[in-house]
Protein 1
Amino acid sequence: MSASLRAISDSAFAPAGLVRQPSIHELEARIKSHEWVNGQYRLMVLAAPDCVLDCRPGQFFHLLCPQTDRFQPYFRRPMSIYGYDRERGELSFLYKVAGTGTGALAELEAGDTLNIVGPIGQGFEIRPEWQRPLLLARGVGLATLAPLAKECASLGRPLTAICSARSPDLLMSTDLFRDCGAEVITVTDEEGNSGVESLTALIEGLIATRGINAFFTCGSARLMRMLQDIGTRHGIGGQVALEQHMACGIGMCQACVRPFRRADGAVNLRVCREGPVFDLQEAM
Amino acid sequence: MADLSTRIGALTLKNPIMPASGTFSEELAEVFDLDCIGAHVTKTITREKRSGNPVPRVCEVNGAMLNSIGIPSKGADLFVKNTMPFYAAYEAPLVISISANTADDFARFAEEVSAPGVAAIEVNISCPNIEDHGKAFAIRPGSTEDVIRKIRSATHLPIWAKLSPNTGEVVEVAQAAEAAGADALVTANTMLAMAIDSRSGEIRLGNVMGGLSGPALKPITLRMTYQCAKAVAIPVIGCGGISSVDDVIEYLMAGARAVQVGTATFISPNTMPRLVAELEATLAARGLASLDALIGAARLADETITLAEYA
């Protein structure tokens, strides 16, 4: 069991754990900037107080998207953290404008405020033995893995990042990964090098030449299963950030469960609470 | 400072704001101090471990939520071992919500959970997901009376009967629960509903049907609260679509002595503490010393326009 899962085991709710100081905050944050980064994705930067910037890569915020003429979302929308910077007092989200919630979000402008709840969930854990990590991101998963790349850089772990997208113009954050000192490899459907077969060959090559010994991934069930297979063959562990329909976002409603493999059979775990980051091999 | 306290039978709550079952858990303690609300109401537990319904378990519709969570339960043993001690550290009374498949199972389970530290048992005789085709005890007066009578004989604790909006016999069901020995009524649970994606044809819940909650439900459960408060002598606790202090006051005026806040907590996790503060401010602004002047204060408008005048 990974440490991120252990942290929420039943014993965490013993009386000694009584929390009187909030760790999850609900507040109005002002939008500093809100730009299109390509035809589908927007980058939102919020001015945020210290109390919500004590984040971990892989954690998320629950956003109250506005009611607009075109869109009337009711639930909050979970959004993984793209960046957090205590010095600048900034929290940022990189998101694909895809549905009712993100459609409404995209209508906000710099100067507007957004109600946010967070930070929430179990983030990535870079274990001491994971000295040579590989990040594999597909589509919007790039946003989720970006803060992890920064963390790897600050820990001095040499990093390889494979960024996958439908087309080259949808590849994002490759500069951010490079700024973190990462070796960046891009693959796209358009170029025909993003399939499981060619990626498997690529990654097995990297294991041989770079000594890759940990996988982190987000954004594709197909690529997650591929990494599970490669990991099983080569004895390499890792973590995956997952999604699920959410309602409350903080663990009350039991809506966002997914099944996970455990020694004594499959168990349902809450993506918002026990996740969104899970052990790579336990995910189903 | 206005006195927000309210009495539900033998139990005194320091304010009338409490969570609706299924929308509250230990995790909310990471958002606010759980002792600021009037009571703690747990998610419904069952005696046996249950895994719950297939996903998607929730979806949003205009101004409302549909859910078919399916009462996943870690079972009575883990509840007693882990959840009970957590709530014991708080002063707010603990209300345990329970469910079972038969009246006898309900009674047996009520007896088992009648432990020190439990202030009342809310009996979820209305959850539309647990029985086939949304059937539940609280749909008919006969099955309501039978299950409450059996639970009554099995526990000394106050019994709160959580009623269903999926009945055409609201008053008869309420009176049956009272006659069988319920100490309070909670009006009400979610309303059986459904949603379909018009583009794909996909049914939007894994369980096909689910319970409607949120602001869209409020006029229905407010009406039920009014009907029940008129029809029984035991306290009625309003529940359904409450998100503002005006919603709270409407329910009190309909005759509720307390209210449960559910779906609104998902939209704003600080809803309950905000409602406590706003209720206190509202009482102060209206020059009221307590809730008494509000409870049951609903009345017809002074100048009722008759249908004839519209014609």
Protein 2
Amino acid sequence: MEVWYSLVDGLFPFTWAQHMFMKNALMAVLLVGPMFAIIGTMVVNNNMAFYSDTIGHSALTGIAIGVLLGFGDPLWIMVIFSTILALIISSLKFFTTASTDTIIGSVSATMVALGIVILSRGGGFAKYSRFLIGDLLSITPNELLILTVAFVGVLILWAIMFNKFLLVSVNLSLARSRGIPVRLIEIIFCVATAVIVTFSIQWVGILIINSFLILPAAAARNITRNVRQYHLVAVLITLASGITGLLCSYYLATATGATIVLIAALFYLLTFVLKPRFS
Amino acid sequence: MPCSNAIEKQQTKACGLCCTLLEDFGVKIGGTEILRDVNLHIHCGELLALVGPNGAGKTTLLKAILGEIPHTGWLRFLDASNCQARKPIVGYVPQKIDFAAGAPVSVLDLFSAALSARPVCLGHSRRMQERTEACLLRVRADHLLKRRLSDLSGGELQRVLLALALEPKPDLLLMDEPVSGIDVQGREMFYEIVSDLRRNYDLSIILVSHDLALVSQYAERVVLLNKTVICDGTPGDVFSDGRINLVYGPLYMERAEGKLSYAKRGGGAIA
């Protein structure tokens, strides 16, 4: 961390960069951004935006369970809970013929309601509102370490599995005919997405985490022609909106996560206008 | 057994010796018998068209051969060179549905993802690109290399999928209504390419189709399937057999015959 701090001091001789929390937050943006970009592109490819949204919202119930069990920091309970939920949702796809949209929608609403009911017992919901909005500036060096491990984990998983993820997202039958265990791959992807989303929730916020996952990928999709460009542009957009959003939120005294998402939305709007040129 | 008439068969370009065998093939899903007692013997270089009404089990048979759903009985492939049985390499051309709509995935990306382990998001090796070009050349689609899958026309996409199914070279190629919903030109080009392929490569083809006119024009063997094999023979034999009326209903066959005789008249010009 010391290296990072002196690096920031050397690179950015501005007032904002003198605060410890800004240095930490900047590093968090540099870690979360690319991680969300590469997961987000695949989520969008698989038409799973609604799924990741549900995982985000269900974190409320995860927090509630953690609180019920008496944990001060519910992070690990949240991760375990969302993993189980991911397993359940991904197997629902195989066992029922009902529309997955409807199932996922019902799960999402139920989980939010359940979380609110448990957490609001005795009128104490206000202290959990930090999970709704997220607080990037509160990230500690310890948490940055966990985030780094998660980032490296995603990179390794992607290095091994990316081509299989891609084939599955293109067409299931085709992927099966190439000998890919489609179901296993889908489960791995669902769980990985759930874990990363849940990890990041306390810094980005339940309400907007899905937008941060989806917007950069959706924007990149508008203006790219192949998988490499797609990933490159998505990573650049998350980094640009992450850093810009962080600085804007510092000077405007606004919530960091939401500011970042707004900038990402601007990127989406821009690429949407440019889209006809790229088709 | 397949080696007994080796000498006379060796003259043909496709060796005609290796073959795929389905023996007592059956599929049960949740207690319901979908297919039973299917016995088929398919030589390489042969194009076998699988016809039958909806729900006859055509797609189920393909899925069972692909290993997507469990089956009873045996699937064996006999290699000409050593007469040994092994599991066949199966290529598959899916129906044109839900294909990466709007995703920025190029044809080259698709081939790299299917044929190499290097993550496609890091780009492609020169070797991969050359290999893909060679694959696409077989189906007259080399100009589509850098195009997005979602930008291809129906006919172009099916040719690309055919090229992918041919790499690595399969022993058995399965096609499930590969050209349904594709315009006439695209369909004819597709079947011309398929005809070339089976003449020039050692591969057996099973084609599921509802288009009886095209089937009678390009397939040399037709199998009528309805839970099991009802008839098996040349298009002429099968389409004149009374049992096809029982399965499809006389009205359907009358309409199809109109198309069939049309195809026979115009067939020479196309084939």
